[in-house]
Write a structure and sequence with these properties.
Distance between the termini: 40 Å
Helix content: 25-40%
Strand order of the largest sheet: 1-2-3-4-5-7-8
Strand content: 5-15%
Bound molecules: flavin mononucleotide
Shape: globular
Number of strands: 10
Largest sheet: 7 strands, parallel
């Protein structure tokens, strides 16, 4: 979960018997190297490192201007001159340069969001012996991942928090909830399928396994763990009534992602036509986010969250993992 955790949460999940994941999308090469060192030295079992593999867009000055115009009322309120705000990318895709950092660590598992990297780059990852996972949000994407070399598919239902992994289409009407998506992907591919989206309890795990999942991926339920780096404002929102209302929004990065509805989403509408291509929307918002956060307000802060925050508790990740893992055990009384 890029921006909400580092190796500490990944390690805690690994030590509790799960497959902890290090999000690398927002790490500099130096920070990535340091985090990989921690996992290599301290993880007893397998661990996962996650990358985005989008195609970076060409900078577009006209689109950037339209975006700043849309944000103008917020700049005016905050007393910020939009001309003074530097443009910038914020999230870099997986590349050979990043692979140079990762290769000496040969991570047991490498996962991708937004498809898979180019064939030569994917072949390089596989040459280290890493198991490769990627997210599918439709049956077509699952089939594409199988045909292009993924070893397992994460079926990311519409309930999931954070960015939608969608990569073959931008049409949100194609996106299915977990209960509809999972069995259709299980039927469509021969790979193991990992269920994601809305799973927050042992019962949720059991439901996913009953629908043919080989495992589950859980994000939101870990966001209030002490090992996560989730901000105080974000934690507060997750534990409040506000968390009952999430929406997909393009405002914070340019790609649809699910977060708790805040003032920016309410006032501009969550899917804004002027939001520039991923990940270019982020830079123009940075000073606004900082301005309101300094006042203890999340008006312009992405509050990533899935639809099901019922598993979000301020407990160690080991406890959350142990609770979820009960879903893999036979329910008592079911033995014949
Ligand atoms: C705060 C947050 C950040 C996320 N960041 C990433 C990411 O960097 N890479 C990724 O593949 N998925 C990311 N996701 C999506 C998760 O991998 C997963 O699909 C999702 O959390 C599952 O649904 P749930 O949130 O209902 O548990 C993120 C999710 C959240 C909540």
């Amino acid at each position: 979960m890029a921006g909400a955790q580092g190796s500490a949460l990944a390690l805690a999940v690994c030590q509790a018997g799960g497959l902890g994941s290090l999000p690398a999308a927002m790490l500099s090469p130096q920070a990535l190297q340091a985090e990989l060192e921690v996992l290599r030295q301290q993880a007893a079992g397998p661990w996962n490192v996650n990358f985005f593999c989008h195609t970076p867009p060409e900078p577009d000055a006209a689109a950037e201007t339209r975006w700043r115009e849309a944000l103008q009322p917020f700049y005016a309120e905050a007393g910020i001159d939009p001309e003074s705000v530097p443009a910038g990318a914020g999230r870099v895709p997986f590349s050979h340069a990043v692979a140079d950092v990762v290769e000496p660590f040969a991570p047991p598992v490498v996962s991708f969001h937004f498809g898979l990297p180019a064939p030569d780059l994917l072949a390089r990852v596989k040459s280290w012996g890493s198991v490769v996972l990627s997210s599918a949000t439709t049956v077509e994407e699952a089939r594409w991942l199988e045909a292009h070399g993924a070893d397992a598919v994460i079926a990311q239902g519409l309930e999931a928090g954070g960015h939608r992994g969608m990569f073959l289409t931008a049409d949100l009407s194609t996106q299915l909830g977990s209960l509809a998506l999972l069995p259709q992907i299980v039927a469509a591919v021969d790979l193991p399928v990992i269920a994601a989206g809305g799973i927050a309890s042992a019962e949720g795990v059991r439901a996913a396994m009953a629908l043919g999942a080989a495992g589950v991926q859980v994000g939101t339920a870990y966001l209030c763990c002490p090992e996560a780096s989730t901000s105080a404002l974000h934690r507060q929102a997750l534990m409040s009534e506000a968390a009952r209302h999430t929406a997909l929004t393009t405002l914070f990065s340019g790609r649809p992602a699910r977060g708790i509805v805040n003032r920016l989403m309410q006032e501009l509408g969550p899917l804004h036509p002027a939001a520039p291509a991923f990940p270019l929307a982020t830079a123009a918002l940075a000073p606004l986010r900082a301005h309101f956060e300094a006042q203890g307000r999340s008006d312009c802060t992405p509050l990533w969250s899935g639809q099901n925050t019922s598993g979000c508790r301020p407990l160690p990740a080991a406890d959350i993992t142990a609770d979820l893992a009960r879903g893999f055990a036979q329910p008592s009384g079911s033995e014949s």
